[in-house]
Amino acid sequence: MDTKLTLKLNQRIIEKAKEYASNKKMSLSRIVEAYLQSLTSENDTSEFEISPFVKSIATGIEIPADLDYKKEYSDYLIEKYK
Predict the structure, then answer these.
(1) What is the per-residue pLDDT for 21?
(2) Cα separation of 80 and 82, whole Å?
(3) Could you tell me if residue 22 is inside a domain?
(4) Are residues 45 and 18 in the same domain?
(5) Which end of the chain, N or C, is less packed with Cβ atoms under 10 Å?
(6) Could you tell me which residues come within 8 angstroms of residue 31 by beta carbon, excluding any fewer than 6 positions away?
(7) In the predicted model, is pLDDT for residue 25 greater than 70?
(8) Are 41 and 65 contained in the same domain?
(9) CB distance 52 to 76 below 8 Å
């Protein structure tokens, strides 16, 4: 059963998220639901792939101040598509 949820977010973020959802031909609600499911599920069966960086934010793992996120993401993609 679906339940309504009201969120207060930065207007710019909302606009960018709506544009992203539109480009993916999905509803913003579906994207938020999938993201929350991926954060709370031990067996992630989400159709969305969440990067390790985003997962680290959600799990409270401390991120080093000097993290080179572009390199980390590049390394991640190289490993993924071996």
Answers:
(1) 86
(2) 6
(3) yes
(4) yes
(5) N
(6) 17, 20, 21, 24, 48
(7) yes
(8) no
(9) yes
